[in-house]
Amino acid sequence: MNVKKLLILLLFFSLLFSDDSISSDKYLFSDVGLGYSHIKDTGTSPLRYHGLYSGMKAGLYTSNLRNIFNVEGYFSYTLASASSYYILNYFIGEISFSYLHTLPVIKNDNLRWRVGGTFDASVSGALNPDFQNASLNVDFLADLMISSIFEYDFKLSEKRKHFLFFHYDLPERNYRAFFSMDLPLIIMNGRPEFPYLNEEDLDYLTRHYYIGGFTMGTELGLKRYLKNGNMIEIAYRWRMLTSGKRDIHLLERATHELTTAFYFKLN
Amino acid sequence: MKKLIQNTAFLLGILILFFSCERLVFSSDPENDPRTTFQYLWDRVDQQYAYFDVKQVDWDEIYLTYSEKIQTGISDDSLFSYLGAMMNELRDGHVNLFSEFNMSRYDIRLLGPDNINFRFIQENYLETDYYYTGPFVHDFIAEDEIGYIRYASFSNLFTDENMMFIFDRYKDTEGLILDMRQNGGGYLLNVFKFLSYFSMSEDPVYTTCIKSGPGHEEFTEPEPVYSTPYDTVLHYTKPIAVLIDRGSYSATSMFSLATLTLDNVFLVGDTTGGGLGMPNGGQLPNGWTYRFSITRTLTPDGINYENGVPPDHYAVLDSSDMQQGYDTVIETALDVLLGR
Question: Which ipTM was obtained for this model?
């Protein structure tokens, strides 16, 4: 049994025996991010396009001490350039489901390590009008990832602060710092056939489908619990993808994004 | 607090580690030098261009000819001239190289005479009260027995209402002339739309295949392409002459090719310019862009007219005819339509 199969089995059993009897906090959340992205698709250009990245997502986040369940929709847009005047417009739409279970290996009530899986399905589109019949390309990607997250809960105690002639009190604040990482188990790609072609009658589902490539993502962030139970979050998110050697034309993209999110507590 | 700082430092360390992954996993970017650019362009054409067979170009020989000219340090202008000249060896109007300062091109129109003078047609056939309906210029000619319709570009969109007006106006004529001389092409969508008013055929109008691999003869299986009739009642079924010349290129050549399957349509004029493939674009390591055809279009019985669709009745403008007020191509079409 190889490592991937073992990890899938672990994920399956962690889902099967997860205990949902303890109460969970449910949040509706939305976040916006801004950052930098670079994209290289050798089907149309050997150059790496660099540009401004913006993204937004919304979803449902359920968490307790034992597990996390997250479902979210995500959309991003990148405006990038590789040379003086050729502009690439790049869009990604994605839905994602993840489940993580707390592993009882850390003997610290404030620190948790959760491991589970994430399923992503995305459609990305690249539009560069200078490429004639190759100006528009659509890619499909679905992947199953091993996800893990370290969470550390801490408090900052009440403090009296001074600024010039002003004195004010900072109340006690509750925080959760986290670092998450997603690593690929299976990646299913739908990429263009030998030539890129987008004519009026082209069926976009006719793609070169294969399993391969590599993707991963990490996120480092801080959540602050508000008095009313809601949360705000700031995070740094990094994601990368390469379509791998089985692709006819290599696609590589990476994003570095600063995000801010608001979590609205539902229960 | 000390613990928090330690943990944060640890997490930041991990983050930096994964930043480095990006550089480790991603491929290196190409050099921006003349040799790399030349090699890249030559490879792309070699692997993806669809018409080496009909153009009868030895691309390996072209490599040897141009490779020795591309030296490190040559100016952008010189590099562009060499690469543009290399592309023009394909003798294809769909082949271009684009930079900030120039665009290389192979002008197919120059292979034949300029076969239309619209001012002459206005003065001798249409006079001043002809109609403009959408992109179409049209009127009765030959003592109102024939409808003359000029469509100058397949890039110009038209509506069903435009076509219905024209059909209604000329329904009692003996025939139509569709003048597509110097129509350099446009949207393929318009080809099928235009064709749908003239064709009742359920048979394929042509087949198309796409490059499927790097070999010169690696193509997908030919896929038949159909034209769906616009309406089963509103059709012009009398004889139609389509006027063509070397400037009838790309989508107009497609239209001309498709009419070969229609019994009531015939071609008059000079051979079209060809350009039956879909031009596909891309970028070079130095940032310039290019385009060339990556599909092959054949008649349903497998004939490749990339070098031009020949007319059924050859005619080019004759200066002695013009001195008498005759457009030789229109007159040839009228001779056939009216049985003169």
Answer: 0.83
